[in-house]
Amino acid sequence: MSPMFILKDFISDSLSAANASDPVAALMDLLRETVGRADALLTALPETDADETLLHASEGLTIYDIKLPPGILYPPHNHRMPVVIGFYAGCETNLIYQVSADGALKQVDRLDFEAPTVTILERDVIHAITNFGDTPSRAIHYYLGDLLEVERDLWNPASGQKGPFDNDNYFGFATSNQ
Ligand SMILES: [Fe+2]
To answer: How far is the CA of 60 from the centre of ligand 1 (A)?
Structure first.
């Protein structure tokens, strides 16, 4: 990576990493380097008020910059592909779920990610994300596939009902984390 942070170069470096023999390891290495340069990264990212900014989508890799405002608990969902996440500002909490034998969703873990740090969610992880802090948390997400095309699941936290992932429902099912 060049000394200056250039978004176009970051995306092409990410695509090279996604094509490496061990894409998860290569993407994690690239993100470890990137989350240590939060100021440069913030300067390079497009200016937007949106919480989710799509930076790239292709068959093998989808890249989002995601900002989580404090206080909101987003509903449980899966991705059907590995996800490598580089947290570069604030603290994000992941609630991890499993489907019980009776089909009910059950929380089995809670992970707090304080920036700067990098993590990997395996292919079938079900999580809900929230920010218990008082400043927005921010992270680069690598989805190892085309997230815009994959069929995946979203759970309604009020009813426990599973349905197809849908962006309107994702934001519609969000609640307070208090
Ligand atoms: Fe997710």
So the answer is: 17
Do residues 112 and 51 make contact, with C-beta atoms less than 8 angstroms apart?
no
Ligand 1 centroid, distance to 116 Cα (angstroms): 18
Task: Calculate how far, in angstroms, residue 79's C-alpha sits from the geometric centre of ligand 1.
Answer: 6
What is the mean predicted confidence (pLDDT) over 107-115? Answer: 98
Question: Each residue of 17-44: pLDDT tens digit?
Answer: 999 999 999 999 999 999 999 999 999 9
The CATH number for 7-176, chosen from 3.20.20.70, 2.60.120.10, 3.40.50.2300, 3.40.50.970, is 2.60.120.10
Give 3 Cα–ligand 1 centroid separation in angstroms.
31
Cα torsion 164, 168, 171, 173: sign: negative
How remote is the CA of residue 76 from the centroid of ligand 1, in Å? Answer: 8
For ligand 1, the distance from its centroid to the CA atom of residue 36, given in whole angstroms, is 22
Cβ(60)–Cβ(18) below 8 Å: yes
- Flag whether the pTM goes above 0.85: yes
What integer pLDDT is reported at residue 2 of this predicted model?
54
